[in-house]
TrEMBL record:
<dbReference type="InterPro" id="IPR036291">
    <property type="entry name" value="NAD(P)-bd_dom_sf"/>
</dbReference>
<dbReference type="GO" id="GO:0008743">
    <property type="term" value="F:L-threonine 3-dehydrogenase activity"/>
</dbReference>
<dbReference type="InterPro" id="IPR001509">
    <property type="entry name" value="Epimerase_deHydtase"/>
</dbReference>
<protein>
    <submittedName>
        <fullName>L-threonine 3-dehydrogenase</fullName>
    </submittedName>
</protein>
<feature type="domain" description="NAD-dependent epimerase/dehydratase">
    <location>
        <begin position="26"/>
        <end position="263"/>
    </location>
</feature>
<dbReference type="GO" id="GO:0006567">
    <property type="term" value="P:L-threonine catabolic process"/>
</dbReference>
<comment type="similarity">
    <text>Belongs to the NAD(P)-dependent epimerase/dehydratase family.</text>
</comment>
<dbReference type="Pfam" id="PF01370">
    <property type="entry name" value="Epimerase"/>
</dbReference>
<dbReference type="InterPro" id="IPR051225">
    <property type="entry name" value="NAD(P)_epim/dehydratase"/>
</dbReference>
Length: 343
């Protein structure tokens, strides 16, 4: 059952009609990162190259995104510059992907708060002022030790133990607050670890599940930082991209939740991804050298989430599993390796 939680939140402005527009002009902030570098081309395919603006703090590594559409240098903490870009391109939907991930966040919690919350607050305010819709991902990292770990419900105890998670929970609350208080069309999903082959993630607890494929293709032994038996939700990038668009295009009258939906595609632990790779590359080897911080973080997160509400409210339905993803990851990375494109 997908009940709104908490029930009966008063609308501050009873007469607000939520203006839900089609996404026409989209801004992706943090476009050079793991998700952004693939979300920008994905959105450009759907909405047209000139209608999707890529923005990042440092465009140099993501110049590719400027080849067939607009690319802007943007420090998301600079609200003035951010607002100017939104006005310049008449943006009506923002994807705010700016974040320090969980393991990096623990090295400098103050900086993580400053960046993650600074970018979010600017995004919310600019969305409010310009009538734009806003997508900001939440994460499995929003949950904590007291959360039920198996079949983690949509609405349950959060209480994360990382600064990353504290930012995510705060972000979820702010997204709902801005929706209820100001009518901002804010929507979000709790992403699992995302596995991809375009841009490497950096500083996350789930990164091992990406790095292991690169090691396999390069013929290297992989050292896994999480212990055997650590189950985590994971998702292949094509499903993550599909989720972003599906949720932002969803009929708002069907959404009982907004910030943020559990979405899941697969759950596995390190020895299972090892087995999937070894099935295709029997010579591949993995050893364990556990990172105590990553271990503690991973153990505080769900083993697998219940994503029934996302399925019921906006038709979430993932396509990829560990086997099909492994086939594709190894093929794509091997092609790049053969072309000398891997560092
Ligand atoms: N992939 C993120 C991390 O590991 C979780 O959302 O930090």
């Amino acid at each position: 059952m997908c009940q709104q939680f908490p029930k009966g939140i008063p609308k501050y402005q009873e007469n607000t009609t939520y203006i839900i527009k089609d996404m026409k002009n989209i801004l992706v902030v943090g476009a050079g990162g793991q998700i952004g570098s693939e979300l920008v081309p994905y959105l450009r395919n759907i909405y047209g190259d000139s209608h999707v603006v890529a923005a990042d703090l440092n465009c140099a590594p993501c110049m590719k995104l400027g080849e067939n559409g607009p690319l802007e240098n943007l420090d998301a903490l600079d609200g003035k510059q951010y607002a100017e870009i939104v006005k310049k391109y008449k943006i009506d939907a923002i994807f705010n992907l700016v974040a320090l991930l969980s393991a990096t966040g623990e090295k400098n919690p103050q900086l993580a708060w400053k960046i993650n919350m600074g970018a979010l607050m600017n995004s919310l305010e600019i969305a409010r002022e310009n009538g734009a819709a806003l997508f900001t991902p939440s994460s499995i990292g929003a949950f904590g030790n007291n959360t039920p770990h198996d079949g983690t419900p949509q609405d349950t105890i959060m209480h994360p133990s990382t600064i990353y998670g504290v930012c995510k929970v705060t972000g979820e609350l702010l997204g709902d607050y801005y929706h209820q208080r100001f009518g901002v069309d804010a929507r979000s999903v709790r992403f699992p670890g995302i596995i991809s082959n375009e841009t490497l993630p950096g500083g996350g607890t789930t990164d091992y599940a990406v790095e292991v494929y690169y090691a396999a293709v390069k013929g290297e032994q992989f050292t896994c930082p999480l212990p055997e038996g650590t189950y985590l939700d994971m998702m292949y990038m094509p499903d993550a991209l599909k989720a972003c668009v599906q949720l932002m295009e969803a009929d708002p009258s069907k959404l009982k939740h907004r910030n943020s939906f559990n979405i899941s595609a697969m759950s596995f632990e390190p020895s299972q991804i090892l087995a999937a790779i070894q099935k295709r590359m029997p010579e591949f080897k993995m050893v364990y050298n556990v990172d105590p911080i990553k271990k503690a973080i991973a153990e505080s997160w769900p083993n697998y989430m219940d994503d029934t509400c996302a399925r019921n409210e906006w038709g979430w339905n993932p396509t990829w599993n560990l086997e099909t993803m492994t086939d594709d990851m190894l093929k794509v990375i091997a092609d790049k390796h053969a072309k000398g494109l891997l560092k």
